[in-house]
Amino acid sequence: MKRILLLLILAICNSGILQAQVIYEEFASERLGANRKLKIQLPRSYSSEEEKVYPIVLALDGNYLFEPVAGNVDYYSYWEDMPEAIVVGIMQGGDQRYDDCYYDDTEFFPAETGAAFFEFIGMELIPFLDDNYRTAKFVIAVGHDFTANYINYYLFKEPPLFQGYISLSPDLAPLMDERLAERLPSIEDKIFYYLATGTDDVKDLMEISVDLNERLKAIDSPNLQYYFDNFEGATHYSLVGRAIPRALEQIFQVYRPISKKEYKEVLLKLPGSPYDYLIEKYATIKELFGLENDIRVKDFIAVATAAEKTEKWEALGQIAKLARSQYPDTVLGDYYLARYYEEMGEPKKAMRTYQGAYDKEEVDFITIDMMLDKADKIKEDFGW
To answer: Facing residues of 330 across strands?
Structure first.
């Protein structure tokens, strides 16, 4: 008996390890003329959802940034506050990070070992990940001090290699602040840029970030989503733990399920259709992150409830039909379609729709008993 229990415990533990498994790769780089170690964390659903694609979060300074990045990505994606993502850490031990981030002292762009590392990421690593893993066309780069400066160089490609930039207390190259302020407004693709420092950061680096923020926050571009934090009491190293979750929250705001605040402050005050709002939200997710997700049940309920509260019955009918097509085995679409028929003065259709869902799966507050009770109430009211 003890042996069976032990085997069960081991099986459970092994299944958990598989979910959180990190792959170690030894990448043979022609550009670097050497092997480079990588850590790759695959999402929990990677082996079970074989058609699904995932954004990439690329952590430079993988020796110490990989774990906080990977942990936060796993946590936030578990609660659907961001999509599941493939996290890749590039190991840069010892003096390697300084060689990788090297720039010349005249133009202040990557040179020699820095140029080789630039080509390694853009011409070898990203294509390798795209060829060997199911990647979406959305990549976020994360860097700290020297590497935070370095990721900026990819903004000067056309188009930029990354769509998201998490810059933690950057040690900027000369002219980089001016160049960023000139370059960012001209980029035609959507760019997410997050900058962070702390009040107890290295003094020079804190001042660099504060000055850079003054330049970047003045940029008026529909394609730039810019965010800045100066964490009270945070040091050069502790700010990393506070900035990474904050950056993920900001970048993936539109991805998150509709919140109570969004429901009250946006949906209930919406001049247009809640149905259009829902469609636009998921179209934006597809456009920004390359993801075609089914609409969440909670989001259907939020917009349908808003349509009821604001008496936008045509929108309710559209929401109901879409819910029926996406979740045909549940009561979700039937309930709101029946509500639509009630408000449109078609009680027989409403009654039959309520009754027709008797063998379907219940969802949230919508139970079979509730549906049948509503059908009986209509029948009683009309004497049928």
So the answer is: 361
8 A C-beta contact, residue 171 and residue 202: no
- Among the residue ranges 15-29, 45-59, 180-194, 332-346, the one predicted with the least confidence is 15-29
Q: What would the 3-class secondary structure string for 167-182 be?
A: EECCCCCCCHHHHHHH
Instruction: Looking at 138-237, list the stretches that DSSP marks H as alpha helix, in order from N- to C-terminal side.
Output: 146-150, 176-183, 203-216
- DSSP state letters, 309-330: HTT-HHHHHHHHHHHHHHSTTB
* Closest-CA residue to 64 (of 104, 34, 92): 92
The mean pLDDT value for 351-365 works out to 95
Decide if 286 contacts 279 (C-beta within 8 A): no
Tens digit of pLDDT for each residue in 36-59?
Answer: 999 999 999 999 999 999 999 999
Q: Are 68 and 89 in contact (CB under 8 A)?
A: no
Average pLDDT over residues 239-259: 97
CA distance 130 to 304: 38
Provide the whole-model pTM: 0.89
d(CA 111, CA 109): 6
**For residue 18, what pLDDT band results from cuts at 50, 70 and 90?**
very low
The structural architecture, per CATH, of the domain 260-382 is: Alpha Horseshoe (1.25)
Q: Which pLDDT score is estimated for 216? A: 98
Dihedral over alpha carbons 96, 101, 106, 107 (to 10 degrees): 150
pLDDT of 306-322, one tens digit each?
Answer: 999 999 999 999 999 99
Q: How far apart are CA 150 and CA 117, in angstroms?
A: 10
Q: Provide the residue ranges of all domains of the chain, joining segments of one domain with +.
A: 2-255, 260-382
Q: Is-contact 77 41, C-beta < 8 A?
A: no
Residue 139 β-bridge partners: 56
By C-alpha distance, which of 20, 46, 74, 60 is closest to 133?
A: 46
Listed in sequence order, the residues at least 6 apart from 38 whose beta carbon sits closer than 8 Å to its beta carbon are 24, 25, 26, 27, 62, 88, 89, 90, 91, 125
CATH H-level, domain 2-255: superfamily: Alpha/Beta hydrolase fold, catalytic domain (3.40.50.1820)
Fold equal for 2-255 and 260-382: no
> Which residue type, as a one-letter code, is found at position 43?
P
